[in-house]
Amino acid sequence: MENLKAKSFELRQNVLDMISRAKGGHIGGDFSVMDILVTLYFKQMNISPENMDDEDRDRFVLSKGHSVEAYYAVLAAKGFFPIEEVIENFSAFGSKYIGHPNNKLPGIEMNSGSLGHGLPVCVGMALAGKMNKKDYRVYTVMGDGELAEGSVWEGFMAGHQYKLDNLCAVVDRNRLQISGSTEDVMGHDDLQKRIEGFGWHVIQVNGNDIEELNAAFEEAKTVKGCPTAVIANTIKGFGGGDVMENKAAWHHKVPSADEYEQIKKELAARKEAALHE
Amino acid sequence: MNKIPNRQAICDVLMEEAKTDKDIVVLCSDSRGSASLAPFAAAFPEQFVEVGIAEQNLVSISAGLAKCGKKAFAASPACFLSTRSYEQAKIDAAYSNTNVTLIGISGGVSYGALGMSHHSAQDIAAMAAIPNMRVYLPSDRFQTEKLFKALLRDEKPSYVRVGRNPVEDIYSEESCPFEMDKAVAFVDGVPSADTASWADEEFDAAIIACGEMVRPAVEAAALLKEQGRRAVVLDMYCVKPLDVESVIQAASRSKAVVTAEEHAPFGGLGSMVSQVVGANCPKKVINLALPDAPVITGTSKEVFDYYGLNAEGIAKKVMELI
């Protein structure tokens, strides 16, 4: 079995390179969401370049589209496009590697970037799965700041109304957004009770722990009659060490040359440690 | 007088097609009655999705369904659909290029006395400004039926606005020339979708209209004929993509152009026609439209009459111009 924990730090290094070269991006959320994406793409979903047009494939929408750098790193690792090409061209003039997901690229189902769209779109995808009697599962990943968008709660309502047990919504609960603490900007605690109040099954995990995440997704598959939300409690900037972790400023900060080296060193050390666990 | 509103014609087409096409899905936001789609919901419950009063959800769910092979038809009052869910139309339908047809019902001032909250006098401008979003305003039930049959065959996003009330027939079972994205020209009262058929004609004026303004435009041409003036009328149901070829031909062969639309004065059919005429065959273009203000209280007819959006008003404007 591939060491996915080590892989997640390697992919964060790709993100660091993309953003440093382009001088722009949303690195804090990329680092917090990475383990969620790695778990979904390498342990859960049957999505690959070989089956990307197959009607039975699982569906994924990155609702927090600003974490596109992490998404590119994972899709590249899955073989959808070369990582070197992404790092070279991310956000450059005329590039197809735009700063938010675009479905002209292989592996990307829906364009996103405006928050609060992913869950309602996934409700439609899950409904289609039920109508067509398909077994595929539908996943979306939202940010926690995103939960202030009213359309998210329209999606929660509809997911329950149509008993979409083939739908799983993940919240990257890193507790920080661009202006600061989510609880200061627009609070979401107690998030579990809120989502349960909408009729969903809710599981809380350490969202930077691939084993815990994987167990949650396995549990979600056994839940019948309602959708599941996974509240993935993460650390914004996870993997970036003291320089980056839990600092709102890193929402879209570009690392200086010194910071780049420190973060790179930290990622390498964590990857090394993961390989020897 | 025909008693079938265009929304009813939409339901009839979808019900007929849904018998054999299980991928057709109709979505409503507590609007199945207003949209005349209640019979569809009753006859095809497996192909009907109710989202409640949630227009943003309506459009996003439609896009998700469409992305998984469905042909989604989302119907909601045009006033809410075109602005409440504008961003979902922009991103989930148009930008993501999903097979979603947005049906704006009770468009324009259909809701008359209910006030500005229920009027959609900005929907053409809003929707036409979105790349990859097409905008259609069919004029009568026969054209509506042909348009929806055409939309069922393609897989691209579009916005269709229809009114609430029955509109008098313009076409008939026997005569409803239709070609997708091609205006219908009325020359001496006879409709044709073939621009070559009137390429050598000369006119005093071109009247270009869409939706509920086509009928008064055709009637205005008849009034002008009584006064010895000849006008070509274009039923520009395809506001976007605008049939540029027909606009240029009509304008080139006329002394002046008058447009008529149930829409605010900016960003609608009149603006688009003016752009095309200005760039290709400059001459005077007058846009008849609703005012840039909340419209006066009244039924659709009372409102149209008040602002001169009727046969007499259009004919009068043409006479002033020429």
UniProtKB/TrEMBL annotation, chain A:
Domain Transketolase N-terminal, residue spans: 11-268
A UniProt-annotated Pfam family: Transketolase_N
Signal peptide positions (record): none
Gene3D superfamilies in alphabetical order: 3.40.50.970
Keywords: Thiamine pyrophosphate
Keyword Disulfide bond belongs to the record: no
Superkingdom of source: Bacteria
InterPro entries: THDP-binding, Transketolase_N
Names of required cofactors: thiamine diphosphate
The family this protein is said to belong to: Belongs to the transketolase family.
PANTHER family: TRANSKETOLASE N-TERMINAL SECTION-RELATED (PTHR47514:SF1)
Protein name: Transketolase subunit A
Species in which this protein is naturally found: Murimonas intestini
UniProtKB/TrEMBL annotation, chain B:
The keyword Transferase belongs to this UniProt entry's keyword annotation: no
PANTHER family, per database record: PYRUVATE DEHYDROGENASE E1 COMPONENT, TRANSKETOLASE-LIKE PYRIMIDINE-BINDING DOMAIN-CONTAINING PROTEIN
InterPro entries: PDH/Transketolase, THDP-binding, Transketo_C/PFOR_II, Transketolase-like_Pyr-bd, Transketolase_C
Organism: Murimonas intestini
Phylogenetic placement of the source organism: Bacteria, Bacillati, Bacillota, Clostridia, Lachnospirales
TM region positions: none
Protein family according to the UniProt entry: Belongs to the transketolase family.
Stated name of the protein: Transketolase subunit B
Cofactor entry: thiamine diphosphate
Keywords on record: Thiamine pyrophosphate
Occurrences of domain Transketolase-like pyrimidine-binding (ranges): 4-170
